[in-house]
Each structure stands twice: as C-alpha cells, then as structure tokens.
Amino acid sequence: MRFIDIGINLTDPMFRGEYRGKKAHQDDFELVLERAKKAGVEKLIITGTNLADSKEAIEMTKQSGHGKRNWTITGKGGFLYSTVGCHPTRCGEFEQHPDGGPQGYLDCLRSLIQNHSSSVVAIGECGLDYDRLEFCDKATQQKYFKVQFQLAKETHLPMFLHNRNTGGDFYTMIQEHRDQFTHGVVHSFTGPMDEMEQLVALGLYIGINGCSLKTQENLNVVKAIPRDRLMIETDGPWCDIRPTHASFAHLANVPQEEMQLYAPISKKKERFEMGSTVKNRCEPCSIGSVLHVVASVRNEDPQTLAETVWENTCNVFFNH
C-alpha cells in the first residue's frame, strides 16, 4: 500500500531527540524518514504552524539530503512538502510581528508561498481552537483566521484546517468564506457525527489520525465519512494509537510483517537505541495502522481503501 501523510510535524524537536528543551537522545531524523519510506509513505506534508515553523518546513523540503539519503523534492514528484500558515493558538504573532505588524506578518507568509510554489501545497494550519484560549483569545483567532482565507483565494491553494470545541463558530466562518478557497481538509477530526456531516456538506475533507480513533463514538463517525471525503494522517509526534483506545483492537488481524513496518520495536526515550522508535513518539511510518483501523471499522478492503485515500489526497494537494 502507498500513503501520503497529510499532517506531520517534522519540525518538532522530538524528531531530533529533544523533549521540552532537553536533549534526551541522538538525532534520528534520517531513520524516521527511512522507516516512513519502508512503510509505504511516498509523500509527507510538513505542517507549518506559524511563520517561523513554515520557514523551517520549507527549508526541510529544500535540503540536499540527510546522511547518505537524498530526500530533496523534485517538483510535484518528490517526498517532502509543506503547508504555510498560522495555527489559531499562534495568531497573536500577527500583532507582535516586529516588521510591519499584522500586514507584515501576512506579507511574509505570502512571500514564502510565492517563492516556494513547488513545495508549498496548502494554506495552514489555520482555524479556531477554543480548548487553548490561554494562548490566544477568540477574537484574535477569528480575525487572523479570516485573513488566511485571502491567502487561499490569491494562491488557489487548498486549506489545512484546525477546529477544536468552537461551538459552531468554525462552521460559520467556513460557510461565510467557502467561495474563497477550492478545497479544504479538517485535520485530526474528533468531532461528533453532526459536525462531520455539516463540514462534508460544505465540500470539505476529513483527516483521520490516532486521536480521531480513541472512542467508540469516534469510530462510528469514521465509519460514516463518505469515501470521497476521507484522508489519513499521523500528526506525529502526537496522536499515536494506544492500547487504551477503541481503535487498538482493530489492529489484531493486521499481518505481523506489516505491523513491524507500522509499529517497529520502541523504547522509552531514556533507554533510546539508534534504530528503534521512541515509545509514544508517533512517526509517519504508523500511518498504515491508521489505514487498517479505518478499513476495519468500515469493513472495507485495506488495499482498495488506501488507493481511494491516495486519490482523494492527490486531487486536493497535488493536482492544482
């Protein structure tokens, strides 16, 4: 099976062995990428969560190689891609920008997109998050979510969207600005059935990862997502599938040789050994586990579903 991880936070220091500002183990970034390739991941879309992070993501797509491997992009046929945008919890940065304030920040995002059109495939991660208002208040989130619709309109790029506990505000803003963007995917979806149905009715796609599969209610929602609106992701280093999740039982029938690719032997970061994965650090290689759970829940053939998801993803991110 072949996969595209639509949401992977490769700029997170965890993938370099650093946790909360402290070095815990050697940098194994190259091995993370190698494991992804072995597991069938053919494209990775690195999430840009603010201006600085977006710049770093683009630099990753431009690098000539890591060690003996060359992961550089070649047009739309490469391995690493990125999004450019500002996460709702980071929207205060627009007003704090030292060179031109909010307009300067927006202009910098725009320039990144224009100057790196071969590697930037979406606007985002952007949206609303009312679970973490301590980082950014509602009014500021809404104000700078709105300006990112303008970026999507100008560039004709799809939107990589974030929505958490917004009481309908996210839906309202999408509905009001739906004519400004072509496609959009609500990533890491954990909402109820009616919310999924409303978003699909607006022509959006739904991104599923381990956090989308924790409860039986989550699984019921995943079962009901129309096939032509479904995408998968890891959101690594977060959102791993754990034994306590409702999804875990659905991995029991996956062939052992496949599971060794998707969930290699792991060790706690304190006992790290080069070549092993880190316990609870979600890697892009685990996307096959997400696919198998989704296929099992929906009673579909994994290979067939993987190809459908591949086509959905290419139609949104790589056919514009």
From TrEMBL:
It holds the Pfam family TatD_DNase. CDD domains: TatD_DNAse (cd01310). A divalent metal cation 2 binds at H162, H187. GO terms for cellular component: cytosol. Keywords: Hydrolase, Metal-binding, Nuclease. Signal peptide: none annotated. One of its GO terms (molecular function) is 3'-5'-DNA exonuclease activity. A divalent metal cation 1 binds at E125, D235. Belongs to the metallo-dependent hydrolases superfamily. TatD-type hydrolase family. This is Uncharacterized protein. It comes from Absidia glauca (Pin mould). The lineage of its organism: Eukaryota, Fungi, Fungi incertae sedis, Mucoromycota, Mucoromycotina. The gene is ABSGL_09935.1 scaffold 11783.
